[in-house]
Amino acid sequence: MSLIVQKFGGSSVKNAERIRHVAEIIERTYQAGNDVIVVLSAQGDTTDDLIERAQEINPRPSNREMDMLLSVGEQISISLCAMELERRGLRCVSLAGWQAGVQTSAVYGEARIKRIDAERIQSELDQRRIVLVAGFQGIDRTGNITTLGRGGSDTSAVALAATFHASLCQIFTDVDGVYTTDPRLVPNAKKLSEITYDEMLELASQGAQVLHNRSVELAKKFHVNLQVVSSLEDKPGTTIKEVTKVEKTNIAGVVKDSSIARIALVGLQNNPGVAFQVFDLLSKGNINVDVILQSIGRENTKDITFTVHKKDVDQAVELLDEHKTALKFDHINTDEHIGKVSIVGMGLMSNCGVAARMFEALYEAGINIQMINTSEIRVSVLLDEADVDKAVRAIHAKFFDET
Ligand code: ADP
Ligand code: ASP
Ligand code: MG
Question: Is the domain of 204 the same as that of 315?
Answer without folding.
Answer: no
